[in-house]
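Homework help thread (please don't just give me the answer)

Our assignment gives two proteins as sequence + structure token strings and asks us to describe the second one. The first is just a warm-up. Here they are:
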Amino acid sequence: RCDYVPRLICDPHYDEMHNAALQIIDSAERTAKLKDVALYFLDNVMSIGLCNPLNLSCYWSWVKNYYGELDCGFHNAMPMIERLWIDQNMKEDMGFK
């Protein structure tokens, strides 16, 4: 069993390093260990997730508190949806009901 499986990649050494680093209480020591974990991960990357050129973010100017984000975290749009609002006056002034 592997703990880190975003692309179905199993690396027990990475899992061991990462889990050990997360157990360190001292923040400076933990940060140094996590840097080593990150360098190991980058040296052994098995796939590179590329952006999808078909993603397009469009919105009306009356949609407020939204800045084009497509997701927040792992395919999660709810934080943006929960915080946006519609400026009804601007919408009406632009000729929309």
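The one we have to describe:
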Amino acid sequence: MPTERSEFQVGPTKRTYYTAEQKSAEFIFEEDVLQSVIVQTVADDEHGAYAAPDALVEGLSGTAARDEVLARFGTPVKSTAASDRFSVDGVFVRFGYVDDRVADVTLMRSAPGQ
């Protein structure tokens, strides 16, 4: 999968982004350690959709309804109008929604603000 690489300094930390072709997935490294993976399950004006969104989360389609996500994962550790974040086996899983359906899935080693 062809990728585009970009690098930024965020304070004292070097952050590197690898963005997949059509921006369907993004891998974020801090100081050469993978921190986050963002996968688009639905195409939008800026991103293509990942080729196999239904294979991302066992038991959920790539465009599952928000209530299906909540039934699968329980109470989120953080919730906004457009996303839910869950703690799962020592990592964080965030679901972003458009019209109450999953549009992106993010895996994070640590969560902002926690």
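TA reply:
I won't write it for you, but here's a hint about the kind of observation we're looking for: The CA atoms of residues 81 and 97 lie 8 Å apart.
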